[in-house]
Amino acid sequence: MRKITKVLLLTCSVFTLAGCNNTPKDSTAKADSINHTNDSSEAKTPGVPATEISGDDAKFAVAAANGGMAEVELGKLARNQGTTMQVRDFGAMMIKDHSTINDEMKGLADSKHIVLPDSLNNEEKKLKADLMAKKGKEFDQAYVDAMIEDHEQDIKDFEQAAKIVKYPEMQLFIKRNLPVLKMHLAAIKKVKAGMK
Prior knowledge:
Signal peptide: 1-18
CATH class: Mainly Alpha
CATH architecture: Up-down Bundle
Largest sheet: none
Helix content: over 70%
Domain DUF4142: 56-190
Shape: globular
Protein name: DUF4142 domain-containing protein
Strand content: under 5%
CATH superfamily: Ferritin, core subunit, four-helix bundle
Organism: Mucilaginibacter boryungensis
Number of domains: 1
Region (Disordered): 26-52
Number of helices: 7
Distance between the termini: 78 Å
CATH topology: Ferritin
């Protein structure tokens, strides 16, 4: 009996310590965690009701929403801090286009019970802070480079997601918005070429 009590106490201590992990999660990690709990492909705890969702769709939705929010926030910086009309105009385009894309994703996520992040993740916050610290041509160059890198990655992510998402509505979202991302990449590369 004592042995069982010790094992139970040890087990309870482990779960208590695990539950007290005070490492703050950023908004995308929180959303991913909630969505993972509701992933229909994961084993469920008997007797615990959950809204079942497609984990692949949820993971993509969280990443796309975070990226879209970042494009809008960084676009606002470019519109206000850019030294050339091309950088300011590109920033304005990011605000307009990605606000529309973000609204579409919010509607889709709501209809599928997918939780999206409510703020930028730590990586995007750091990029924003780094850009805010730059002025003049240094800002323009850093912003343009970030937008090229970001849009190249976004295009890869959308193309990869198109192969694995399960909801027809998510497929349609990707099909409708991938050309917009490609247009953005071509536009920012043109801005970069004009900076030389």
